[in-house]
Amino acid sequence: MIEKLLVANRGEIASRVLRTCRAMGVATVAVFSDPDADAPFVAEADEAVGLGGATPAGSYLRGEAIIEAAERTGADAVHPGYGFLAENADFARACRKHGLTFVGPPPEAIAAMGDKLEAKRLAAAVGVPVLPGIEVTDLVGGGLRAAADEVGWPVLVKAAHGGGGVGMRLVREPEALAEAVAAARRQAGAAFAGDAVFLERYVERPRHIEVQILGDVDGHVVQLFERECSIQRRHQKLVEECPSPAVDSDLRARLTAAAVTVGQAIGYVGAGTVEFLLTPEGEFLFLEVNTRLQVEHPVTEAVTGLDLVRLQLLVAAGEPLPAEAGRPTVSGHAIEARLYAEDPRRDFLPAAGRLHRFRVEERPGLRVDAGVRDGSVVGVHYDPLLAKVIAHAPTRAEAAALLAAALAGARIHGLVTNRDLLVRVLRHEAFLAGETDTHFLERYPAAELGAPLAGAEAERLAAAAAALAAQAGRRAAAPVLAGIPSGWRNNPSQPQRVTFDGEHGEVEVAYRFHRGGLDLAVDGTALAGVRLWDCGPDSVDLEAGGVRRRFEVHRHGADHFVDSPLGPVVLRERPRFPEPAGAVERGSLTSPLPGVVRRVTAAPGDRVPAGAVLVVVEAMKTEHRVATPHPGRVREVLVAEGQQIDAGMRLAVVDPDEPAADPGDAGASAGAGRQPGQFPPAREADPDSPPDRRG
To answer: Is the pLDDT reported for residue 289 higher than 60?
Structure first.
């Protein structure tokens, strides 16, 4: 048996592996980068060793440093998790050379399947249908175009030695091919062992189906059913489930048999996944083998009752597969949702910063694999996955309802996430009907699915609760007469007022306590049937319109996070005396997020058309193009390739071409209202103090 295991990974998968080790009595070692020093998984391990660095290349991809950490702590095995070195054959060989058990398949299998084109050739050789593909790493010009013509348009550009959608590009027009290949090579080189890429024929509206396999050292390879992973963005999975609603018993038998055949052909040992595309006509086509534990493995665990990490450790120690793995059964239905710090309404732009609160209510049938906790910092160097939330229920409809309710009620404060989109997907009639494919978020735009769950009326009530909670907090902290109601005076005067900025615009709340109770108005309209049952700094029990609701309020600076049955709401309280908004120089292009400048494509003096990309910023495994919205001349380029930048930092300045003057526009701006970002004049009255008496 393995006695001490080093987990060569981070975040939720490190915590997941550590959890099974504790259950098996296996001692554990974590390794961590500088930004991860205070991450939850570090504290969960028995011992931890710092790798230094911040980027993957400077930390979790340093195989020699990880092996040295194992030797220093006396670990006898290494679990690579997923990503980073999980599918690196050289690292697996190095572990073997140093007498460490690598929890995964043999290096030879990793190498054979790590080359996606070689994997296709092997699958075809054993009679499994495949998609055509051609390596194009060193092809340019006519040779590159000829390769695409041979594969068939449209094409996907894919990394040959990695997965997870990193670097993947869909190309429909020949003119975009060279740039797509170059961008894919850059991302592949930064994330994996090499920058090799290949072209693959693109299938319109397929389903993404994969089969979980397990093999042992005695040559047994078994299957643990299929998973469907069709709900994707940027070719990365968002929602996964087991079993697939599109797979009947006949198709399941053929799919799983093909997966086992591929596993046997390569002498597979450990946990792996054979991935397929399922066409609208019902034809399945081999894609690749992931020689590691998948992100979405919990749905398989839920329906089979098997712990895949435990099985990995047993097989790695030389044990045969237990009998229950050879005769698995499916119980109920499981769905997983990946909760990311990203904004679906801004093309899934990743978010970085501090997560003030992260809590998902415990419910029967619900599992949360999280890599964060209250106060965690989400940086720019790694994937912005916060957690995986998994629901298991007797039926698919029940699993979807449970998962949607758990996500909708989660307390996630401080960062924008894809939570609202996930909830709407899980409640969408097309999803519930099983009508899913990889184009789901194109037919039903992410910008619409990602809109806030709480509507304008919910935001108004949340603002009222936030104002009441804030005054309760101020009264509780008052050094004298803390028991006197907020704004109390013998001769009633104007109400107390506070203004918030919310998703649906400005909200003004006016309230006044009196002997008869509470007067409460929002945006000048009195709320009917108001009764304040209870009020504290963190919770407000408010009845309005004959309906009583409890609002949880968490304040961080000027931000108020309000959670209620109406949905989560974020409000920013306007300052009483706002600072004048700083002007941004005309023509400035700013970075949408913190990251690293990978390319600068223009120089001062260049003339550029509208839409021209001037700077490419890499953050969280994704490249973001910063383009000029107008034609003009580049006056300044303020960054260089390789430079670390912050969100909002100016990257370049483009002087826009001046349009011809139109006499009809003269005086058009006369009498214009306040400028964007400029608040109205501040109110003079303190929300909890009587107004000034001027004689």
So the answer is: yes
